[in-house]
Amino acid sequence: MASHSFVKALSRIRLDGVFNPYGERCSLCDRADADRRRRANLRTLLDAAIRMRVDSLWVARDLGYRGGRRTGLPLTDEEHLPALSRAYGGLALRRATTGSPVAERTAAVIWKMLARLDQPVFLWNVFPLHPFEPGRPLSNRRHTRAERQTCQDLFFALLDTLQPRRIVAIGKDAHDTLEEFGLEHHPVRHPSYGGQVAFAEGVSRLYGVEERSAGD
User: Which residues contact 50 (CB under 8 A, 6 or more apart)?
Assistant: First the structure.
């Protein structure tokens, strides 16, 4: 599936209690053209990944309100947009929100580890949108099976497009879903809730890079 068709299909999904950053604008923090910017960012990234034939796909659970909800790029907060751009040779990525850049703890750990690899990695989620608690748009919750099934065909379309040699599941939720899908993958600990060291160790073993202490 071409990047334009993929992003267009993704942007049309509407679910109760779920924010779609590719087709909706947040009244609290978004620019007037935020959804258009996020669609453009994702198309730019996907085109680059296809062109470079990325080796690895890292898959987590769903978008967070401090990261992907704002950028439209999974596991990437606004602080790490420049790092993502550099990893793919200098992509033109634009912020979609107003005010100061917002950081996300998980994104910081992910990108600290990605900086040690000598290859770009495509980051995604088994549920590609942002589920939130009722009445609290700036909160995170685990998506439901029904919500995930709404987007499942797009997940497999992405796999077919990228054809990654290696899939890494970040956290138990992603691991369980990929098991359910019958996809071969490498599970690693999610870096949240004290899992930073275990996450770094898992990725280091998988990619054969030097392990460092948590403070490095």
Answer: 3, 161, 162
Cα separation, 14 vs 18, whole angstroms: 7
Torsion of CA 14, 20, 26, 29, to 10 degrees: 170
**The pLDDT value given to residue 214:** 45
The identity of residue 23, as a single letter, is: G
Tell me whether residue 191 is exposed, middle or buried, using C-beta atoms within 10 angstroms of its C-beta: 0 to 12, 13 to 18, 19 or more: buried
Q: State the helix-helix crossing angle for 34-52 and 145-162, rounded to 10 degrees.
A: 40
- Residue 133: strand pairing partners: 136
**E strand or H helix that includes residue 188:** strand 186-188
Angstrom CA distances, 207 to 17, 19, 52, 117, 140, stand at 37, 34, 19, 8, 30
The pair of three-digit structure tokens given for residue 57, joined into one six-digit string? 């796909």
Residue 213 has pLDDT above 90, yes or no: no
What pLDDT does 118 receive? 87
* Cα(62)–Cα(64) distance, integer angstroms: 7
Taking the C-alpha atoms of residue 134 and residue 4, their distance in angstroms, rounded to an integer, is 32
Q: Is 60 exposed, middle or buried (0-12, 13-18, 19+ CB in 10 A)?
A: buried
DSSP codes of every residue in 32-65: TTHHHHHHHHHHHHHHHHHHHT-SEEEEES---T
